[in-house]
Amino acid sequence: MSAALLSPNEVAALAATSKTVIEKALEQKVFSAPRGTVGDRRLLPLHAVALAVAAKSLGRRMTVSDKKLVARKLAALSPAALKTAEIEVAPAVVLHVGSLARDAVERAERYAADREAFIEIAEGVQGGRPVIKGTRLTVSAIHGRLISGDTIETLMEDYPDIPRRAFEAAALYAQTHPQVGRPVRRRGSAV
After folding, report:
1. pLDDT tens, position by position, for the chain (191 residues)?
2. Cα–Cα distance between 169 and 153 in angstroms, integer?
3. Residues 6+ apart with CB under 8 A from 144
4. CA distances from 122 to 62, 125, 190 (A)
5. Hey, which of 65, 78, 106, 127 would disulfide with 183, CB 3.0 to 4.6 Å?
6. Element (H, E) at 118
């Protein structure tokens, strides 16, 4: 799971912080954002979630240099080690990242695995919008039902062949990847 890459919106949601915190860290070059394989999307490694939680917990007490130091040390750790990490920021100052970020890192690992297992974007299925794999059920439809008051239990009753984890992944995916505008019309395609 060390190859899990997350969008800045996903990192913010999983770390329970604002996207501004993530964008500011990118702007300050706290961690580099490798380019995704789809278009020119910025994708961040799993340790970005741990850093975001630590930065949120400490607020303004962490300098940019401290964040860069912590990011470098977190980048060298395995996902399992992130959950117990203790990083010396200065002599006699130890940041217990593991205890701060353990739950968020576990959520991020679970979400990344579920996103890969249950969400797909397939040419010719629902106009290329993200769907639950093997269905035509879009993540935006799931999100719409949830914000309209339905529960995951209701969705599971309506779609008994789809596991709870698929609905949870779809809901977070839709929340962090909002639809913008109309679908792109391909040249030569029928209207």
Report:
1. 446 899 999 999 999 999 998 998 899 999 765 555 445 568 999 999 999 999 888 877 788 999 999 999 999 999 999 999 999 988 888 999 999 999 999 999 999 999 999 999 988 888 889 999 999 999 999 999 999 999 999 999 999 999 999 999 999 999 999 877 665 555 665 54
2. 14
3. none
4. 42, 6, 18
5. 127
6. helix 97-118
Q: Cα separation of 92 and 115, whole Å?
A: 40
Cβ atoms of residues 3 and 37 within 8 Å: no
Tokens of 141: 């439809």
- Identity (one letter) of the amino acid at 110? R
CA distance 52 to 137: 32
Q: Which residues neighbour 138 within 8 Å (Cβ) at sequence distance 6 or greater?
A: 126, 129, 130, 131
CB 12 within 8 A of CB 49: no
Residue type, 151: T
